[in-house]
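A further point concerns the way the authors explain their paired sequence and structure data. The central task, working out the structure tokens from the amino acid sequence alone, is never made concrete. I therefore recommend that a typical entry be quoted early in the introduction. An entry of this sort, consisting of the sequence and the corresponding backbone structure tokens, reads as follows:
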Amino acid sequence: RLRGANENVVTSMIFGSQFDRTLMWIIESGDKTKEQVATNSKEWGIYSNATLKYDSTGDGEQNATHSGNYSTIPAGASEQTKADNIYDLCGNVYDWTIETYSTNFRVLRGGDFLSNTTAKYRYYSNPSNNGGLYGCRAVLFIR
């Protein structure tokens, strides 16, 4: 047992069903519409066809513009990419999930900065793949 560990808190990489439920919650809360999640996430996703302001220096000011760039921006750097206080659900990097596609593949969600997909987008890859297109999203459970 780790010193200071709290047995009432559990963390994990996100399941595909949790990603889906998060997207539904964002629609239900009214923060984004079904179209913004399922059909056109360009205005809040970090995609190559998106234009958004972001903080490039870490000073809290939205002082730079990402416009048609084939590149990432720092995680959480743009207020425009936030939905219900969750940043970067679509674009920037694919989020690995625990969901399986087959014996050798795992599901990725949300698309990356090279794509022009949507928040609900599903992709799959071998979990040994790594690099600038992949990230992960942790979940926290309080028992």
